[in-house]
Amino acid sequence: MGARGAPVLRRDTALLLGYGGILLGAWALWQAYEVRGQTRPFLTKFLPGA
Fold first, then answer.
1. Which of 2, 19, 27, 43 has its CA 20 to 30 A from that of 49?
2. What is the pLDDT of residue 20?
3. What gap in Å lies between CA 26 and CA 1, rounded to an integer?
């Protein structure tokens, strides 16, 4: 069972959602900057997956 008040009860589901969010965010940043030939802002270099 999950921790008290946790919105996702199963650990594997929470991990899947977390890693999926990181991958989706990395893909969105790639689309926004690399595909369009734009330079990335400095702070995006510290984001996971960027």
1. 2
2. 93
3. 30
